Task: inverse folding
């Protein structure tokens, strides 16, 4: 048995940690089965001195164990040793460390510095200082932040590998600082330069593309802490001795792009201006930083019909292009970005709206590489101007996002579904850039709470999102008020708006998801006031019927069941949606209160939940079980949120089935109904129907976009219309993760990986077969270790393979078996007989008449039965009807005839394969 992956606050040996009571987690890796931890011991030391010894504790807890030693001191390295024992008498140990940061912002003794350049100056200021170090150096740390986004160079080399520091938080209350380790510093003359771009702080941002959301001057604050080998220390800090100039970055805006002039030499420099910004707002970096996580080579050079030189990277991504070039001095290269080509094959940047996303590079006559610093784009294609010969090898797409640990994989027998999974993960990567954004390309890129809420469950399968969301939830809470509730975007640059259902519910749903996924109760504790605050906000706005029926709502945003209208809210009654979420969130708050042992609150919210449910039934469900809006989404909410009375569930399910049948087995849901539609069907014994909807590949469906060549999830079901035109409402992103929320159903229902106890301490493996998919293999790296569920159903045999990590247990429900199996950790395989056939026949009663008549065999057989039938002049009018529609009123004899033709066609297909 081994202890692996010792993590401190989810991180490996973190440096610059300001958590006063860090939590320790480790994984037990063992070749034995049924392994459970029986005891652990944690020892923390500082420079050899014992700071905390937990002693040997009889416990099976191996995740998020809180430090209980004396108060930590700033800028200090702590060593951590963990020992653990298991039920087989084995012993393992692991070691790690953490280093505290400044612990509080007021421990910064540096001054904030800014510049007093003229207002029209767009170039990024470069703050710098030359400094002398006299003695042999042991360690160097730099603590830094900015108003704007910054990059530090030490003696010409960039510090660290992150981008967009200090990240985006609610700067009115919170601003992160970063810690850098510097290994190369030598005694003698040294130079530090800090370049600051406008970023989110001062840059052009928001729907109307205005600047200065938080302030009109960028600034920076930094300290270099040098520890000499003789034990003495020195701090070099930003103050009035620094100078400021402008450099090669002549302009940079997140939406607009960056201009780098490598011929630019600035002779002028000015003294800096010392300024102030509340240091109490400073917090250490809370989530993983944004990094370049992958580099994609250029795939193809395209000269478009309009003559544009376009490079295709084969994948929509978020980031920028690195260009290697040997140009003439002053030669200007322009790089534009777009997600798509139009149907004629021309460059199509319209989905960016006003975010023009143009990077401009001016060459210096040497061989050089250009890479933007303070901008990012959402794109697949770039159009190049200013270069005669394009060598694809000189262009690389750099993929940028918060560097979360990948945790999930999903593959199956259907290649379109595998592409869907890839699209979901790419949309997550494209939109988890420091905050969860709606889209990464147009003039938005905002932390829309609703989008994050509907996608969070899927996100947590694909990547470890604990730190990412913990940071963002703190901002959410910091933006929340009694008067307006939870804003629609976090950080909120849209001003005060009353909270809206499904969007503001992120305040409750996401902390609960983090608790369930990682067993992290501290998030619940930290967010508790925000969670209850949101429910209480709604309660305060309810009418005498106990329901929330006033104010603006997004409803089932972008649902297809209402003609596109200005409000885009779908056909489901917006207040039905609002009250469904009100009940759902209240119940989650009740559960959170229970976890936190707040008994009075638990009772209060439990009573409230019952009252809302009653009022909901009274208002939205008739005495005979009809919903006021019989939309797919309304039925889904009534069932999935467990709102309808037991006696009405059957009828509501029938309404849902009828509605789906009326849409020829297609969905018509928007942001609210989509994440739950397939879950609801699966939970209510209609997994078959969920599977049918899931595998549809004509409009509207998940696979429709895949078939249209999508490499990310689209904002709309019809972002690209069947005829190749783009949807033209002015709101059409090709990289919007909300509908990627189906990913959770794929992991939970198809692969069957579920948690039964927080953090997957107890796991439910319940794979569910579906027609059209013959194997699924999924893995999820939980906080305890890897979980695997894989099945195949072929040739009358079902095979299931399961892996359960040490220190957890599982319940396994095998497909087509009644009895659940209790499992301890280990690897298991099962194989048994079945009569189930999952392969889909190519032809069915749902095939169109044309599909049949395209087959010579069908024509031959039909004419054998009824000579001249296929030549009948009326037959062409029925081409697009399904066979069951054609036969709706036909005699039984015709039905039998068509069925036999279909059978013959399928047999023919089988013999071909
Ligand atoms: C965003 C959405 C968001 C919505 C709410 C849009 O502009 O892109 O995804 O949730 O607005 O109105």
Result:
């Amino acid at each position: 048995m081994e202890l692996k992956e010792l993590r401190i606050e989810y991180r490996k040996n973190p440096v610059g940690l300001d958590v006063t009571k860090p939590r320790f987690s480790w994984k037990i890796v063992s070749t034995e089965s049924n392994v459970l931890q029986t005891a652990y011991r944690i020892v923390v030391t500082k420079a050899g001195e014992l700071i905390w010894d937990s002693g040997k504790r009889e416990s099976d807890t191996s995740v998020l164990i809180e430090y209980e030693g004396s108060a930590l001191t700033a800028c200090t390295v702590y060593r951590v040793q963990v020992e653990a024992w298991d039920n087989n008498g084995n012993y393992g140990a692991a070691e790690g460390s953490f280093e505290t940061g400044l612990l509080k912002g007021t421990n910064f003794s540096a001054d904030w510095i800014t510049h007093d350049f003229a207002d029209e100056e767009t170039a990024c200021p470069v703050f710098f200082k030359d400094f002398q170090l006299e003695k042999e150096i042991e360690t160097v740390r730099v603590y830094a932040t900015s108003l704007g986004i910054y990059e530090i160079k030490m003696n010409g080399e960039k510090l660290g590998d992150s981008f967009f520091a200090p990240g985006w938080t609610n700067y009115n209350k919170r601003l992160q600082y970063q810690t850098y380790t510097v290994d190369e510093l030598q005694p003698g003359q040294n130079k530090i330069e800090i370049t600051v771009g406008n970023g989110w702080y001062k840059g052009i941002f928001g729907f109307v593309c205005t600047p200065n959301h938080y302030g009109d001057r960028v600034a920076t604050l930094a300290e270099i802490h040098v520890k000499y080998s003789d034990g003495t220390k020195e701090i070099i800090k930003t103050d009035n001795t620094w100078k400021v100039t402008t450099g090669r970055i002549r302009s940079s805006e997140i939406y607009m792009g960056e201009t780098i002039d490598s011929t630019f030499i600035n002779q002028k420099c000015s003294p800096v201006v010392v300024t102030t910004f509340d240091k109490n707002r400073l917090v250490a970096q809370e989530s993983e930083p944004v990094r370049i996580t992958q580099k994609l080579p250029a795939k193809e050079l395209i000269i478009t019909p309009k003559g544009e030189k376009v490079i295709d990277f084969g994948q929509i991504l978020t980031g920028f292009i690195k260009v290697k070039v040997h140009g003439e001095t002053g030669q200007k290269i322009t790089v534009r970005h777009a997600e798509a080509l139009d149907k004629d094959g021309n460059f199509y940047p319209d989905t960016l709206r006003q975010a023009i996303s143009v990077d401009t590079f001016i060459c210096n006559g040497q061989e050089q590489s250009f890479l933007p610093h303070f901008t990012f784009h959402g794109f697949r294609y770039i159009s190049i101007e200013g270069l005669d010969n394009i060598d694809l090898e000189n262009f690389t797409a750099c993929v940028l996002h918060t560097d979360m640990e990948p945790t999930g994989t999903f593959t199956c027998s259907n290649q379109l579904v595998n592409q869907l999974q890839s699209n979901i993960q790419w949309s997550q990567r494209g939109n988890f850039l420091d905050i969860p954004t709606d889209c990464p390309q147009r003039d938005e890129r905002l932390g829309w709470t609703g989008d994050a809420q509907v996608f969070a469950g899927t996100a947590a399968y694909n990547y470890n999102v604990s730190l990412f969301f913990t940071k963002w939830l703190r901002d959410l809470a910091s933006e929340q008020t009694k008067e307006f509730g939870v804003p629609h975007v976090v950080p909120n640059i849209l001003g005060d708006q009353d909270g809206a259902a499904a969007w503001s519910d992120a305040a409750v749903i996401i902390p609960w998801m983090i608790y369930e996924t990682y067993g992290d109760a501290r998030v619940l504790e930290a967010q508790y006031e925000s969670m209850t605050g949101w429910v209480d906000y709604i309660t305060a706005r309810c009418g005498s019927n106990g329901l929330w029926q006033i104010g603006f709502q997004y409803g089932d945003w972008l649902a297809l069941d209402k003609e596109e209208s200005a409000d885009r809210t779908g056909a489901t009654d917006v207040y039905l949606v609002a009250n469904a979420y009100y009940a759902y969130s209240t119940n989650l708050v009740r559960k959170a209160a229970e976890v936190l042992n707040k008994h009075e609150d638990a009772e209060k919210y439990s009573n409230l939940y019952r009252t809302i449910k009653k009022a909901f039934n009274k208002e939205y469900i008739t005495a005979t079980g009809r919903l006021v809006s019989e939309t797919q989404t309304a039925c889904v909410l009534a069932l999935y949120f467990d709102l309808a009375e037991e006696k009405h569930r059957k009828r509501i399910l029938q309404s849902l089935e009828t509605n789906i049948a009326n849409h020829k087995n297609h969905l018509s849901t928007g942001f609210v109904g989509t994440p739950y539609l397939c879950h609801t069907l699966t939970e209510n014994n209609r997994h078959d129907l969920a599977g049918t909807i899931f595998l549809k590949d004509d409009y509207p469906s998940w696979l429709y976009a895949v078939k249209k060549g999508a490499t990310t999830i689209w904002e709309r079901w019809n972002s690209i219309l069947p005829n190749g035109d783009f949807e033209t409402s002015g709101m059409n992103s090709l990289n919007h993760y909300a509908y990627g929320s189906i990913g959770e159903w794929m992991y939970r229902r198809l692969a069957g990986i579920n948690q039964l106890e927080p953090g997957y301490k107890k796991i439910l493996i319940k794979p569910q077969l579906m027609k059209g998919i013959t194997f699924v293999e999924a893995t999820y790296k939980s906080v305890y270790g890897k979980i695997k569920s894989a099945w195949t159903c072929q040739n009358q045999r079902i095979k299931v393979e399961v892996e359960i990590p040490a220190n957890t247990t599982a319940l396994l429900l095998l497909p087509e078996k009644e009895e659940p199996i209790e499992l301890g950790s280990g690897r298991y395989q099962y194989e048994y007989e079945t009569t189930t056939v999952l392969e889909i026949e190519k032809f069915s009663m749902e095939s169109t008449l044309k599909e049949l008549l395209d087959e010579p065999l069908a024509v031959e057989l039909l004419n054998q039965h009824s000579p001249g039938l296929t030549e009948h002049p009326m037959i062409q009018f029925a081409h697009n009807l399904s066979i069951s529609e054609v036969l709706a009123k036909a005699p039984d004899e015709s039905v039998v005839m068509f069925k036999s033709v279909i059978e013959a066609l399928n047999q023919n297909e089988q013999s071909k394969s």
